[in-house]
Amino acid sequence: MPIQQSTASEISKLSAAKSKTSTQALQGIKVLDLSRVLAGPSCTQILADLGAEVIKVERPLIGDETRHWTPPFFEDIHDDEPQATSAYYATVNRNKKSMTVDMSKPEGQAIIKKLASESDVLVENFKVGGLKKYGLDYESLKVLNPRLIYASLTGFGQTGPDAHKPGYDFISQGLSGLMSLTGQADGAPQKIGVPVVDLFAGLELTIGIQAALLARQHTGKGQWVDVALLDSAVSMLANFGMNYLASGITPSRLGNAHPSICPYQVFKAADSKHFIVACGNDSQFANLSKVLNLELHQDADYSTNPQRVKNRQSLTQQLAVQFNKKTRDEWLQLLQSVTVPCAPINDVTEAINLPQVTARDMVVGFDNSSIRVLGSPIKLSETPVKYHTPPPKLGADTHSVLTDLGFSLQQIAALERDHIV
Question: Which is the catalytic residue, given 33, 76, 120, 198?
Fold first, then answer.
């Protein structure tokens, strides 16, 4: 059966069958990861999932600070020794090697420079100019390796009046307008529950790196990839931002409602459980009206989507009264039977245990490890994602990386003695 005609399940099985023997999209690409916490590491984990060799450089003894963001944590075994791995650190650090280097010392800087000279990509999320004092900035390293793709993820980017400021997901949500659009219309602005700006910026950085790798095939040269949290958050305004550009009117919070479609929101059933109804067109609204034993679709005030948006309040009131006559599950069954888009609002436990989530391999484990992680959403038929290793023990690969760089056992011992690694 051709791939384009296969079901999602068949593609998943095909990918799983090939995962043991096939190559990967970024196999042979070497990534030096100087990033920490979430946004930068989320990018390098995607690269690692796609086959890149990712060497994560961490501070001696301390490592990435998220190693200490507990509870919760996994009780895991590394080299026959029990070790607690924080759930936060495990979120974005699988498939990576960990080595410790003190970059504040000249010997540590020399190690990182040697790694950079042999790498395809360097990822960092220091404040603007933070690596220049170590000679690890883009201008310095491109002299050593003109093919190096130097990827920076900062709060505000490398240019502009705020470039010097540190970046935080929460701050970016506030500055960008995202929070002004989140929450009930008559309530306070709310941040989005998960750090979406960090994760979205990590995706943007990944795309930028991949574009730079493709460009290098044509030019032979690396380049600087500059991604900012604020830029990423502003781009996430999407249709709300475009609505402002088209009309000059500042969008306001609508709770769970949609600014351009109605009904497209949350309702409460007779058992006080909430569910989503998302009518994207007039035929779906007609089916909804029939299920509710109403003739709303024949009313001129509601027969078209623009009219429904205009008369949102009166329509929503009528729907709310009807939805309060049956339980959530009864409504979901009825609505699904006439192809009206709808869904329950699951908690995290319910979501992770959905049969569809299981079928798509969105929770995966590792051999000889108790750690389970959320899987990659990228399903490739020919070069599938692989889950090689769980998040590494701090400095687990320091010796092997240094040996590959040509350091002798005596030299490594001296670096350890001087607390360079």
Answer: 198
Active site residue 49: no
Which residue matches tokens 């001296």? Answer: 414
Q: Which residues of the chain have pLDDT under 70?
A: 1-21, 77-82
What is the share, in percent, of the chain residues with pLDDT greater than 90?
Answer: 88
Nearest to 207 by CA among 176, 232, 239, 240: 232
402: nearest Cα among 392, 390, 414? 414
Look at the pTM and tell me if it is higher than 0.85: yes
